[in-house]
Every structure is written in C-alpha cells, then in structure tokens.
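Let's sit down with a protein and look at its sequence and fold side by side. Once you have written the record down, we can walk along the chain together.
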Amino acid sequence: MFPFFISDMNKVRKTLNVHERKWSTMKEKVIEISHLTKSYGKSRGVIDVSLNVEKGDIFGFLGPNGAGKSTTIRSMLGFLKINEGSIKILGMDSVKDHEKILKEVGYMPSEAWFYDSMKVSDVIKYAADVRGLDCSEEARKLCERLKVDTNKKIKQLSLGNRKKVSIVCAMQHRPKLFIFDEPTGGLDPLMQKKFFELINEYVNEGATCLLSTHVLTEVDKYCKNAAIMREGRLTMLETPHIDDETFLSFYEEEEE
C-alpha cells in the first residue's frame, strides 16, 4: 500500500501547486462597486454603476463635469447614502465600515479647502492627528519632494501650492488606497511629474490608486486600466490608451 500512498500524495501535491499558481494570479479587489444607484430627488446622480479595481492598479476615472464621478467617489467613502447597490473598499462595507475605510484611504478632493489662517505645518499635522498617527517623517519627505513651504499660512499660497499641501495630507499616512479627484489642476509640469513619480513609488510598494481626471495624457501615460462616466453611467474602456476623438465623443452632448 505504501507505494500507492506516495503516488497519491504526489498527485495531491501537483494539484495543490496548480491551485497555488492560479491563486497567485488572482489579484485582490480593492474597490468593488455593484449596481450603485444614487439620485438626488428628481436630479440624476449615478445609475447602475459596477466597477472593480484590483490591488496595484492605477485606475483612470474619466468623464465630463457632472457625469457622476464625484458622486461615485463620495459614495465609496461613505459620505453619501446610496439608493441601491453595494460598495466594498478593501473588503469593507462603505456604510458599516466607513470610519475604518477612511483610515486606510488617502483622499484628495478636487477643491483644496483649508482654514486660511492656519500654517501649512499645522494643516498637515492636523490631517495626521485625525487618524491618530505620527506621520511627521513621511510628511517631511513629501514636503521636500514637492517643495512645500510649511512655514507659510494657507492664505499666502497659490492654487498649485494648496494642491501640494492637499497631496501631502492624502499621502503622508501611506494608505493602501489613494483616491484623487483632479489632483494635478494648478500644478506646473515639473510638479505633475513629481506627483506621478510618488504615485508609482507607493503603488510599487503595494498601494492602489483611483485617479479621477480630465487629462487624457495622464491616463494614457500612467494608468493601467480606465473607465469613463457619462450622464451617470459608466463604461469600461478596453485600454487606457484611447485617441482624442474617442475621448472627446464622451464629452459631446447627446442630440435631442
């Protein structure tokens, strides 16, 4: 019986090895949106949106103003109550685990709003304190890379410099997921380059990024996958490398 036992065990090992290889190719889903619908009374929000983003992806999230991108993002973060569907972020429910999710996410809204009278250093520290973390070393590195003057007050900063402060606040706790809503508006070309260098560094270390933008070249150059929203509905793109004509067609108004 012993030889047969060895033979059977070898078969089991081979089977397990096959399954291990399959499991290793299955990437963890960081964002799972299923049939999301959110309306504002009679106004349209988003309609039946389903989207999966895997770990390690830089995912381009495109679409015109008012298409539903920000509504989708705010729903993901639990800031909005959804009408239908479900959302999981890092395996957690966007409603029940709202606070836990926010600790693991670096969110940068399109508008960088801060108290004008606060110093930059205080704003950055406050963003870390809210999470109960000491992010001083990472914040220092980010400020150095992005040339952020931490001694100035917010009211002294240009739009681009406010954006840089917002980037530091979103990155300093080294989150598992970055969600950026039009992050490069106001940044000069050099700072745009440095921003994406940072994104790539964090992603290479295991993070994931959802990039909401109007800039097609950013998606073409940096994103691995992409989707576009139009009038509340989402369309997955076969590739993030799309031509200008196809891209602009999503921005054109529908004919009456």
User: Anything to note?
Assistant: Strands lie at 29-40, 43-54, 58-62, 84-89, 92-93, 105-108, 177-181, 208-212, 225-230, 233-236. Residues 1-9, 18-25 have pLDDT under 50 and may be disordered. The radius of gyration is 21 Å.
